[in-house]
Specification:
By secondary structure, the chain is of the alpha+beta class. Helix content is about 25%, strand content about 25%.
């Protein structure tokens, strides 16, 4: 449950509150600690990452306590309000400074609290929270501060502008305007979303840091300590000898210079690797379970260039990121996944477990400068961490397959009756495989057909397709509801019925290229017997989920088809929505359809929990159950309303 929001204190008419004494400031800070941490967390830059952002929010609030005594005052009525405003201004100033440091890529000094051996993360929210989080990441800190003051603090626009100005914002009006463009401000939904645990740094999940990396660091620290002792002993002996020889002070050996803080990020010696068989002995089947492969994994020069390019993207000819992916260098040692020459290109694949990102570094023969592609890999799994792109041409792609892939092949989604064509992936590297055409008619749609090792799960086959990203998108299918059957969950799209459904939806994937899609589900949410004995139609919601969280949907009406499967008609679509997911299981949509006999009809269909549908406007009818049909003139306006079993109305998608 979300943390209850504390009542907002009365705000003085002055833009800034009067400075409290130290004891009063401590009392105010302790009383309103939770709300101040929420405020700081919302203003801090999302680029910090979930763990660092939580810790920084607490550090900002704790550091707001004044270090020097203020005026001692008797605590009369209204004093707490002024003290709170003064503390809040200090919190806002400190949180806003973090974004300026982030833009200059300056390191953050360690502050209390310090968290060692654990990672902190707010609880993951639903699609609405993820969409709001994405929108907040696209606006400056001043706009996030304005939103926080409006919604969390309940201030009006003039008061918000005064507080922003007092906190050092140069253009408060611009910040308020930018905040006003954020989704959900006008209808109040953003206020409800901000109460969710996704935005509450006071209630967090705890999980360990990378245990292998921690063990490696402990060994490195021990080795460094022993080396330092030996160096000190040797230096002491040299200095003692120099003193005996009567050398002047400026001729004595100088202490060795310390290594710069960022050097380890570019040192191939710090790269982490995973043992080859680790994937068979862990339940975490993602990129952390990949071993290092390729015959150039010991090439320190190549690995050093790859690490340097990631640490400073300006050296690369092209740096590309999938939507919502930060291009910042890793926060610690990276994991090596692959290094070899593929089709005349030197390729290095790296993984940053701390930020769940993968990077592909490539030095193509004849190219002036290398390229770097960075993509998110949040919560990757046995299916979404099954492959990474090595090389790509306009018509082909080579993948490196996960070590748990036992069988691999290709098939054409538009030809469901054809069998899978197997291939051999030597060392995990596939041969050049066809990719869907980027332009022109949609006449074929090649996909990967993969099967996991029986050591993971028996008979686990799944499909993935290239959408122009560093990793292919996982394809799933949800069959139509059966009479009295429980709600069905997405399953692998390998059955004949799933392949037949995808044959009519595959061409919709064209519009998903380059959007950072991790998985696409094809949900047949209703079947409808058409009037005039025209057969049965399917209503399909195709949902694409991105690595960064938000998803988009398209609803198709698929009339009966004879011969080669043909795409249906898209009757509704929506961006950044939870519809057609486990967080949005109730769906209704409508369309117009012309019978083969000539008459036009208004049709509507809902998911299994829709018990009644009303069609109104140019027509008037009400049907029990999840489908409805009525004759309607082509130009007559028709409104569709679905009703759930508890009487709750549901507006149609689109």
């Amino acid at each position: 449950m979300p943390t209850p929001r504390e009542p907002s204190p009365k705000v003085p008419t002055a833009p800034a509150g009067q400075r409290p004494g130290i004891e009063e400031a401590e009392a105010v800070l302790v009383e309103h600690y939770g709300r101040l941490v929420r405020l700081a967390h919302l203003v801090l830059p999302p680029a910090l990452g979930r763990h660092r952002r939580v810790v920084a929010a607490h550090a900002v609030v704790q550091d707001a306590l004044p270090h020097t005594p203020g005026p001692a005052r008797a605590h009369g009525e209204g004093e707490w309000s002024g003290g709170y405003v003064w503390i809040r201004e200090r919190v806002l100033r400190a949180a806003l400074r973090h974004e300026r440091r982030t833009r200059r890529a300056r390191p953050y000094p360690p502050r209390l609290p310090l968290v060692l051996g654990l990672r902190l993360s707010p609880h993951t929210g639903g699609a609405g929270e993820l969409a709001l989080g994405r929108a907040l990441a696209q606006v400056p800190a001043a706009a996030r501060a304005a939103l926080a003051l409006r919604l969390l603090e309940g201030l009006a626009e003039p008061e918000t502008a005064a507080v922003l100005s007092a906190a050092g914002v140069a253009d408060p009006d611009a910040a308020i305007t930018a905040a006003g463009r954020l989704p959900g401000l006008s209808d109040g939904s953003a206020r409800a979303l901000l109460d969710a645990e996704e935005f509450d740094p006071n209630r967090v999940r705890l999980y360990p840091t990378d245990l292998l990396r921690r063990r490696y660091r402990a060994r490195t620290a021990a080795t460094a300590f022993v080396a330092a002792l030996l160096a000190v002993s040797a230096l002491t002996a040299v200095l003692a000898s120099a003193d005996r020889d009567g050398l002047p002070d400026d001729a004595k050996p100088a202490a060795p210079a310390r290594t710069a803080a960022g050097t380890s990020l570019t040192d191939p010696g710090t790269l982490r690797t995973t043992p080859a068989g680790r994937w068979a002995d862990t339940t975490r089947l993602d990129f952390t379970a990949w071993p290092a492969r390729g015959d150039r994994r010991g090439d320190r020069a190549l690995l050093g260039r790859a690490l340097s390019t990631w640490a400073d993207g300006r050296r690369a000819h092209t740096v590309t990121t999938t939507p919502g992916t930060p291009a910042a260098p890793p926060s610690g040692p990276s994991q090596l996944l692959f290094a070899a020459d593929v089709d005349g290109t030197a390729v290095v694949l790296l993984h940053d477990a701390a930020t769940d990102r993968v990077a592909r570094y490539a030095e193509a023969a004849g190219a002036a400068r290398p390229t770097l592609d960075i993509a998110r890999a949040d919560d990757a799994s046995v299916t979404t961490a099954a492959a990474l792109v090595l090389t790509r041409t306009p018509t082909t792609v080579r993948y490196l397959l996960a070590p748990w892939i036992a069988q691999a092949g290709t098939r054409d989604l538009l030809r469901p009756a054809e069998a899978t064509r197997p291939f051999t992936a030597a060392g995990g590297v596939t041969p050049p495989l066809p990719v869907p055409a980027a332009g022109g008619p949609c006449t074929s749609w090649p996909v990967l057909s993969l099967r996991s090792s029986a050591q993971i799960v028996e008979q686990h086959a799944f499909l993935a397709t290239d959408l122009g990203e560093p990793s292919p998108a996982h394809l799933t299918h949800t069959p139509p509801p059966g009479s009295g059957a429980p709600s069905r969950q997405p399953r692998e799209a390998v059955s004949r019925s799933a392949l037949d459904s995808w044959a009519r939806s595959a061409c919709l994937l064209t519009d998903l290229r380059g959007d950072g899609v991790r998985a696409v589900n094809d949900w047949v949410y209703a079947r409808q017997t058409l009037p005039d004995r025209a057969g049965a139609a399917a209503w399909v919601c195709t949902r694409a989920d991105t690595w960064r969280g938000p998803g988009s949907v398209r609803v198709q009406f698929q009339p009966p088809a004879t011969g080669r499967p043909r795409p249906g008609t898209v009757v509704a679509e929506r961006q950044s929505t939870a519809a057609c997911s486990r967080f949005g299981q109730h769906v209704v949509a409508g369309t117009r359809w012309r019978s083969p006999r000539g008459p036009w009809y208004a049709l509507a269909a809902g998911s299994r929990h829709i018990v009644r549908i009303r069609l109104s406007g140019g027509v008037s009818t009400e049907a029990r159950g999840p489908v409805a049909a009525v004759r309607a003139a082509p130009g007559a306006p028709v409104r569709v309303t679905g009703y759930q079993s508890d009487g709750t109305p549901l507006a149609p998608l689109g």
